[in-house]
Amino acid sequence: MYKNYLKTAIRSLLKNKAFTFINVIGLAIGISAAMVIYLVVTYDFSFDKFEPNGKQVYRVVSQITFQGEVSNNSGTPIPLHKTISTVSGLKQAVAFRIYSEDVRVKIPLTNTAPATFKSQDKIIACDKSYFNLIPHQWLTGSAAVAFNEPNRVVLTQSRAKLYFPDLQPAQILNKTIVYDDSLTTSVSGIVADTEANTDFNFHDFISLETFKHNNRQPSGGDIDGGYEKDSWGSTSSYDQLFIELLPQTTVEQTQNQLNALYKRSNKNPEPGEIHRFVLQPLSNLHFNADYDNFNQRIASKSVLYSLLGVAAFLLLLGCINFINLTTAQSAQRAREIGVRKTIGGTRQQLIGQFLTETFLLTLVAAVVSAGLSYFLLQLFSGFIPKGVVFTQIFSPGMLLFMLLLITVVSITSGLYPAFVMSGYRPVQVLKGAGKIAEVRGSSFSMRKSLTVSQFVIAQFFIMATILVSNQISYLFNKDLGFKKDAILYIRTPYNSVKTNLKQVYLDKVRAIPGVDMVSMASDAPSSSNTHSTTFAYNDGKTKRETNVELKYADTSYLKVYNLKLLAGRNLQAHDTTGAYIINQTYSKFLGFTNPQQAIGKMVNVNNQQVAIIGVVADFYQKSLHYAIKPAAIAYNKNSRHARNLHIALQPHIAGAGNWKAAISKMETAWHEVYPDDDFEYRFVNDSIARFYRSEQDTGKLLKWATGLSVLISCLGLLGLAIYTSNQRTKEIGIRKVMGATVTQIVLLLSADFVKLILIAFAIAVPIAWYFMNNWLQDFAYHTSINIGLFAGTVLATITVALLTMSMQTIKAAIVNPVKSLRSE
């Protein structure tokens, strides 16, 4: 019986090649989208699942509230690491410190210059407890002894292979590694790389005993820097603290103990500041953008759930499309059904036959979708995590998912048409009445309802795509308060031995033809990096305190970025750190209605009285997700923060060739001054564009989803147009005999479809407005939702729909009425 089902299904699908092709494409699009999204979602939700008792592991993070403004920090004060043992209910506590992404590593070699590895990262200082939290297989050495002595380091297998490419793990033991020319260590162990997905992808593990022995503490960005080891008021994201709770211990109990410990121990709290410790679950590490995850990619659960929604919608559209096309073609199979029933075929056998056809068609679509998924992965390579690769579609989990997906899609798509067509009465269909009747007493058939559903989804995607595109255009075209074009910046080495080398390189760059101006400063006006401190102002009546974002610069900084000075003067070389230029927002915070009123006023910064010498117009310090905050610019080009060259190229040399020549000369000068460091540069406008990478990815995804949803919806609409024109063949013939023109008939046939689109539009508008308005609330500054967006959507949808239907409606309208009437 099943063999007969299969043979009949193959014949039926081959007989209706156009019908089969359209259905395969519609379903394949939905299935391929589901495959890719399944890979992305399962990848992100698989992070850090291998740690023992992971559900009981938490990171201690800091929430600091100052003047009502909350800032989050993934780190904790160093003294907490030393006193955490006084907190009850803990199974273990693991503290470690992260280095910056820019560490120079040297491997001394016999009779030759040392091997140098520039800009190494993923280096931490820890003790053996780290490997209780994040287990590794030890290839040589052991956690019990590897960290007991100072100046010891453990490497992962991949990092060991990088440093010592010709040696086996056992041969690497006791080899010397020098970090940043100042810290000499010997290898005490090699561990295997973690194969599971994790954010803990560190490679160099330096023993904490090293820093205790040398009476120094590691600091972020500087492997041999000073550190306030006893300051409860100093919190850095470099200092990480993880704890594992005993089963009977609650999160609330532990947080209360930690915060009570802080209040008892911090003898000099910052006035107006509230410091609170919070426990962040290990499972939340990969998804919470409020706290960093060691500079790894942070996934968004809302985005992942949205992706699942997109996959579900596209699959639903494919299923609806299949139902519409199948029922539209039902008249062609009515006599077949009648004959089958007449010779003894049961309804159950017919349902089995139709479901077999659907399953076979879905299976073909799944095979096609495997090829489509490869192209989707390439198309969205910038959006899809690097850990997601095409070969994963052959994994057991993926194959099981595909089997389940094929089954669900086959049943969802085929069940309704199977029940409807198997219910035909033999006498009626053999007499020529084999049409699927509309549901009596209802103005909408099942097919019309499904078509409305399709266009609700399609129009929602269209509206969302237009809005996201408008917002992205708004973000890139808004005046940020400073010049951002034709400016590049170069970060000089952090650990340069001679501080005057920055000035040497600046002078060389300034002399390059095509360079307009050069400034030595910290970051650009708009940057993801933040350095802030507390400013206090007392006018004798009111004391005003707030956090102020600091930028360090020289006298050319305002000119390079064309920052507008509203009052006062520019920075001068003799100002050092005793004078600040503030922004207009901070001037207003101090109570001044006129910027000139702020000039000469004194503010307290780190217990030092500092004069306000100028006020600049507001500029956006971060992305437009955030409001403008108080900011100040100080003259301190020798500060460790002020190590970036900001280079404005001359406008009249605009052009890739001229800019390339100027940058090439900058690179030549770089190697003359810093022969051991790589030359890297970045344009300011490119850095700003990176703020909105997520929005760009969302826009790209929506355009893709919109195109596919409109395509599938139009295929479904075409199916309904075929069905309707077949049902109204006699009516069309009679109207033509009575004098109706082709145009009138086309309009008649199209009117019902336009009504369906308008009904779908009325449903889609409030849904789209709700979600779009919520999305815009994530931006402090955003575009508006206007009526043009909705009008453009419905006009575009109707236009595309009419073009899609025109082939069938015109074909039906021009048929000779004699032929139309005879066919009935």
TrEMBL record:
UniProt superkingdom: Bacteria
Domain MacB-like periplasmic core: 20-260, 450-623
Keyword Transmembrane among UniProt keywords: yes
Record keywords, A-Z: Cell membrane, Membrane, Transmembrane, Transmembrane helix
Entry membrane topology: Multi-pass membrane protein
Domain ABC3 transporter permease C-terminal: 310-422, 707-815
Any coiled-coil regions, as ranges: none
UniProt-annotated location(s): Cell membrane
Transmembrane segments: 21-41, 303-325, 358-377, 397-419, 450-468, 701-724, 745-772, 784-803
PANTHER family with a match to the protein in the record: ABC-TYPE MACROLIDE FAMILY EXPORT SYSTEM PERMEASE COMPONENT 2, MEMBRANE COMPONENT OF TRANSPORTER-RELATED
Name the UniProt record assigns to this protein: ABC transport system permease protein
